UniProtKB/TrEMBL annotation:
One of its GO terms (molecular function) is siderophore uptake transmembrane transporter activity. The keyword Metal-binding does not apply. Belongs to the TonB-dependent receptor family. This is Ferric enterobactin receptor. It comes from Metapseudomonas resinovorans NBRC 106553. Residues 284-733 form the TonB-dependent receptor-like beta-barrel domain. GO terms for biological process: siderophore transmembrane transport. Its main location: membrane. One of its GO terms (cellular component) is cell outer membrane.
């Protein structure tokens, strides 16, 4: 029995059983819920009668309570099976309220590399977890002046079919996870080992109607079961390939007359994953999990470069030779050991994890080269990122005037990055050396150590009122200490109506590229800042004197649940301070010795921009047929982004003003289930000021909005028997296609491709 099940809430007489048929009290182990319990007792006259007790209330930990906050969504394995993602789980996470896929800025420079963005705070403020452990492999990818990384993020390391559930936490509920969680947290929970032998094999394919778009093929397996009486195991593997779009897919939609450069379609990806977990039951109170995994993720080049150069525009480019090849390959290894304890005083968890990522890629946008172009000599370099993590947590139920569960936790995280390709290269034969740029004098290594302690208390003020205060202290070895207080609460107005709210201070430490004064990044933009000249470009250096980014996150919501009906609305507001941007203030200049009239500026990252992000989220669930809608149900959610702009009037990321997701699920019979999905995306606005140049962008081109549009899909699953099922469906049923109309911001908000109609099918066999 979990110790967070508070027995003081349950008053049951365990009677000595001397009479035949005399019953006994029976409890159910469920956390954070109300459990009906029945008991039989022996009355005075000796007859046996059933005695019904009131619902038993179970008080969970602060973490369990926060999973029920208004800004939290849960995606189950059944949801994933009904609506399988084409490539990775971001395809289904984006269907939740408050979620979109965007770049990390409004620049549009990597328009098709969209990642999970929670409440408009940008992908770099979304923390990805796998089984509660942070995944930070994208830190191995160089950070550009516009705040972008050439990566698809960390949402593609687990095959969709091996996910048990996904927890999406937004707003104050996510602040407990520390640096990088200002927007929220996506926790991917994988399937656990089983006590009996089970296995599965799944094959999935997605075929676009237009052969200019990339096709997907995915195959994965799982096997789990007992090894001995005390040992169980689980292993899964995955092969996944999505082809790249044709390199000229956007050619007919590029406004070259207005200055737009051809931008590529979506890159492809190859995934190979293998993961194993062994769980050892040391005794009835303790388990020890050992996990190891290896993943390989390679992009398939489609011609996407920051400048949009093509062979005709740049005779020296080698783009045509690279189409269809991998120009960027990520290798990720993870090893962890986790101890779970269930004690008389409470529960405990201690985890140690090592994560290694190697990012092997062509030299792209390096110092001495055009920002975004692949080096003409097509050399490769490898950056290596290591993360060491130790964390632990105690949950202690207690009664001090009122029932409560106290949580105590601590973390230690060491991050190390070695990226020789961007730190110790020549700045170009035409320019004199920057300070400290001589060979060997500019270190290729950077590191940071973060330590944290936190305390939370889940307090039952009354039977209907739960109060959850928390306090987290993070210490960064370079940027000092940061306090993150939080306060969340929920109040049951009635059995069906609940009022919830919260406020928290979240923070994000500068990343290793931003904080390292040895980091050197070259941009060849003409006159990229005041003090530079046409053709001079500029260099961006890291800055050791930055302040962490912070955000005060607030939300208030009300929810209704009854017999399958559900409804809710939540208001959120994030006051975002000290956002780190590439400053356009030149701290020094260097002269081109071959052309003294050309000056290159030296810039640094700086805390320059504050922002306000606010809006509304809502949901409505309607049971149409069957008990609580188990036969036919209709669920809809929406997000209204009222504001997500910085002090210059630029959006933090290009997100729709409105997003509405609607899903109709029909369990036709025991074997067949069908679903209909639709998403409406509202108007999307581009940036209006180029913050790296402090200039208003071109009104005839870059200020163009992306008009509203909607996407629909249908799908179904046929369960032949317990061991065989088939799935099929159509994505983008009405073939609403959108094209990327220019590289960078030269097309306003039209910076990504929306793929057209495609047909998918899957088969799963299991035992």
């Amino acid at each position: 029995m979990q110790s967070c099940f508070n027995l003081s809430h349950l008053t049951l007489a365990l009677l000595a059983m001397s009479a035949p048929g005399l019953g006994y009290a029976e409890t159910l182990e469920i956390e954070g819920s109300e459990v009906p319990v029945q008991s039989t007792d022996l009355p005075v006259d000796g007859s046996i009668q059933a005695l019904e007790l009131e619902n038993t209330h179970v008080l969970g930990s602060a973490q369990q309570e926060l999973r029920q906050a208004p800004g939290v969504s849960i995606i189950t394995s059944e949801d994933i099976q009904r609506r399988p993602p084409v490539n990775d789980i971001s395809d289904i996470v984006r269907k939740m309220p408050g979620v979109n896929l965007t770049g990390n800025s409004a620049s549009g420079s990597r328009g098709n590399n969209r990642q999970i963005d929670l409440r408009g705070m940008g992908p770099e403020n979304t923390l990805i977890l796998i089984d509660g452990k942070p995944v930070t492999s994208r830190n191995a990818v160089r950070y550009t002046r516009a705040g972008e990384r050439d990566t698809r993020g960390d949402s593609n390391w687990v095959p969709a079919e091996q996910v048990e559930r996904i927890e999406v936490l937004r707003g104050p509920a996510a602040a407990r996870y520390g640096s990088g969680s200002m927007g929220g947290v996506v926790n991917i929970i994988t399937k656990r080992p089983t006590d009996e032998f089970h296995g599965s094999l799944t094959a999935f394919t997605n075929l676009p109607e237009d052969d200019a778009e990339g096709m997907t093929r995915r195959t994965n397996f799982s096997l789990s079961g007992p090894l001995t009486e005390n040992l169980t195991f689980r292993v899964y593997g995955n092969l996944n390939k999505t082809d790249a779009d044709d390199s000229d897919i956007n050619l007919a939609h590029t406004d070259a007359a207005a200055g737009s450069s051809l931008a590529a379609g979506r890159e492809g990806v190859r995934n190979r994953d293998i993961n194993g977990l062994v769980s050892w039951a040391l005794d009835e109170r303790q388990t020890l999990d050992f996990e190891a995994g290896f993943s390989r993720q390679g992009n398939i080049y489609a011609g996407d470069v920051g400048t949009g150069a093509t062979d005709s525009q740049n005779p020296n480019s080698i783009i045509s030779d690279l189409i269809g090849r991998e120009t960027n390959t990520m290798y990720r290894e993870n090893y962890s050991m986790t101890h779970h304890g269930d004690w008389d005083f409470g529960t405990s968890r201690v985890t140690a994890q090592y994560e290694n990522t190697r990012n092997r890629r062509f030299l792209e946008g390096q110092t001495g080269s055009v920002d975004g172009d692949i080096s003409a000599d097509a050399q490769r370099a490898t950056s290596t990122y290591d993360s060491y993590l130790v964390d632990g947590q105690l949950d202690i139920p207690m009664e001090l005037m009122v029932q409560q569960v106290l949580t105590l936790g601590a973390e230690w995280n060491r991050q190390e990055l070695d990226d020789p390709s961007t730190l110790n290269r020549s700045i170009g034969s035409d320019w004199s050396a920057l300070p400290n740029s001589a060979a060997g004098s500019r270190s290729t290594r950077m590191d940071a150590t973060l330590m944290a302690v936190y305390v939370e208390d889940n307090i039952e003020m009354t039977r209907d009122w739960i109060l959850t205060p928390g306090l987290r202290l993070d210490h960064h070895d370079q940027f000092g200490s940061n306090w993150s207080p939080s306060l969340n609460t929920s109040y049951k107005l009635t059995d069906e109506l609940t009022l919830q709210g919260g406020i928290a201070r979240a923070f994000k430490a500068p990343n290793l590229y931003q904080s390292n004064p040895n980091y050197l990044y070259r941009s060849n933009g003409n006159g990229c800042a005041a003090g530079t000249t046409a053709g001079g470009g500029c260099y961006v250096l890291g800055n050791a004197n930055l302040d962490p980014e912070t955000s005060i996150n607030k939300e208030l919501g009300i929810s209704f649940v009854r017999d399958g009906w559900s409804a809710g609305i939540t208001y959120f507001r994030n006051d975002y301070d000290n956002k780190i941007v590439s400053s356009n203030v030149v701290v020094d200049t260097i002269t081109n010795p071959g052309n003294p009239s050309q000056f290159a500026g030296i810039l640094q990252w700086d805390n320059a921009s504050d922002a306000v992000v606010k809006g509304w989220e809502g949901n409505l669930g309607i049971p149409l047929m069957g008990e609580a809608g188990k036969v036919l149900s209709w669920n809809t959610n929406f997000t209204y982004m009222q504001d997500n702009k910085d002090g210059d009037g630029n959006p933090l990321s290009v997100v729709p003003e409105y997003t509405v997701n609607t899903m109709l699920d029909w369990q036709v019979n025991q074997q067949l289930s069908l679903s209909l999905t639709g998403t409406y995306y509202g108007r999307q606005e581009p940036r209006v000021v180029n913050p790296t140049r402090d200039t208003v962008v071109s009104a005839d081109n870059e200020l163009r909005d992306r008009d509203p549009y909607h996407i629909w899909g249908v799908g179904g699953i046929y369960q032949v028997n317990d061991n065989l099922s088939f799935g099929a469906g159509i994505n983008n049923l009405f073939d609403k296609r959108l094209f990327r109309e220019g590289a960078g911001t030269s097309a306003g908000a039209n910076t990504y491709n929306e793929p057209g109609r495609s047909f998918y099918a899957s088969v799963t066999t299991s035992f």
